[in-house]
Write a structure and sequence with these properties.
Order of helices and strands: EEHHHHHHHHHHHHHH
Shape: globular
Helix content: 55-70%
Number of helices: 14
Distance between the termini: 27 Å
Strand content: under 5%
Length: 302
């Protein structure tokens, strides 16, 4: 912190002469007042603090996992049942009745390969958006880096993704799909999905503390985002001139990238991918900035 004292007055030696000033009005600040200024206007992300509290991060993530599957009959099988049931529904209504093209890929495999990254995104977005309000009892009682809360909320989506990935491997074997070299690109598209969800989630969690309407809007926005993403349909049905602009939605690049890595079909154009990387990076960095700028008020207004 940088401390500047423009003038030394006898009143500084006598606390009874001190007068509370309005810090929002510079003209009301007298010559006997201290002005405390931050050393940096842009707050740091605070990775060092997060590392120092890594045990708390692990505890919160493990607690969320235990609460999610506590007293359930199927337990972690829900991570398989939900995408599989959605696969069946979409295969019947979009694949069989709607005759939606699937670029030569069996439609159940076509839709399931897109549902995996989408559900990773949706679970991460939902968890991070509601994380601060759900943990308000912790925020108001003890200090710790607030970023730990939304980051720990990503654990459920990652675990569910890992379990459902085993089902995808079994489906690839059933349909005799060969393993392609570009399958190594799947972690890159996973990171793009997580970065997009975390960026939007940090924005939403910080705003949700003050405006609870955000929590009600997130499920609605997620549904709209789903249909704006080529999950149930291939990007080939979109005019080629729109593909680059389709990159405004980073999840379109993620879903098409997954299919390209698994089947070698479709693929993401360079302009579309660059656009998605730019949008995702902007969301993530601005989300960190807004979260860090507002976190000092969380305990007062949550």
């Amino acid at each position: 912190m940088k401390l500047s004292m423009p003038h030394t007055s006898p009143s500084m030696a006598n606390p009874t002469n001190a007068v509370m000033k309005n810090i929002d009005d510079p003209d009301s600040i007298g010559s006997d007042a201290f002005r405390i200024l931050p050393l940096q206007q842009v707050p740091a992300i605070g990775f060092r603090d997060i590392w120092a509290y890594r045990e708390l991060l692990y505890f919160l993530a493990w607690r969320d996992l235990k609460v999610r599957y506590h007293q359930t009959i199927l337990g972690i099988l829900w991570a398989v049942l939900k995408p599989c049931s959605m696969m069946v529904v979409f295969s019947v209504f979009f694949g069989w009745l709607g005759r939606i093209p699937s670029d030569g890929i069996p439609y159940p495999l076509f839709i399931f390969s897109a549902l995996l990254p989408w559900q990773l995104f949706a679970h991460t977005l939902s968890g991070t958006s509601h994380s601060l309000v759900s943990n308000q009892h912790l925020i108001t009682k003890v200090y710790f880096p607030r970023l730990i809360i939304p980051i720990s909320a990503m654990a459920i989506g990652l675990v569910d993704f890992g379990i459902a990935l085993l089902v995808l491997v079994a489906m690839l074997m059933y349909y005799h799909v060969p393993i392609l070299p570009q399958i190594l690109a799947i972690p890159v598209f996973m990171l793009l999905s997580i970065a997009t969800a975390l960026g939007v989630g940090l924005w939403a969690s910080a705003l949700n503390v003050r405006h609870r309407d955000i929590g009600h809007a997130i499920p609605f926005v997620t549904q709209l985002w789903f249909f704006a993403t080529p999950v149930a349909y291939p990007i080939s049905v979109i005019p080629a001139s729109w593909h680059a602009w389709y990159g405004i939605n980073p999840m379109a690049s993620v879903v098409e990238g997954f299919r390209w890595a698994l089947f070698g079909s479709g693929g993401v154009g360079s302009h579309m991918l660059i656009f998605s990387l730019f949008i995702s990076s902007t969301l993530l960095l601005s989300g960190f900035y807004v979260f860090r700028r507002t976190e000092q008020t969380f305990a007062d207004v949550v």
